[in-house]
Please model this.
Amino acid sequence: MTESDTHASRAGAPSAPVGRRERKKAATRRAIADAALRLFLERGYDDVGIREIADAADVSTTTLFKHFPVKEALVFDEDDDDEARLLAAVRERPEGQSVPAALCEHALRHRMAAADGDPRFTAFFDLVNNTPALRDYVQGMWLRHASALAQVIAEERGLPADDPACAALAHFALEAPRAAGGHDDPRRALTRAFELLEKGWDSL
Model:
């Protein structure tokens, strides 16, 4: 789990103290999330309390809740960053690259590459899939990402924010990595899924 350092400055004031504060906050957040995930994987999500996590991260429960307002968020500490990268994949794609191609490239780079051959990701997904509270949280998170992605796709195409085709593309683009994950060759399966989004049914 990683956090990017944030650097900010104000006119007439040195930027270093602000940078140190942001780095300290990021380090605290990372320590809390790492401690939580370790305990969840060791004992199960429902058998670990908030106070235990705070003690393991050497912070108060008040500090924990400043970073993570609900227990489920501890498991998905990079959710905001993940969404930002997803939207940037569309907004900042190279000239001439289609939206489906940009989303396929993003999925291969950030979703599939992370899980390749890493048993920690298997353990993580097992934790989520076997915990009803986390499954529900993921669904809400997924819907939020789909809505944000659909709006960005619509912006890029000059279409209304509620355009159904943009919503459908966002939905399928987010679902494709999950569907491909159970395949013998998940990368090939993911590429095939995005080929369908790119070229349509007649291309198969």
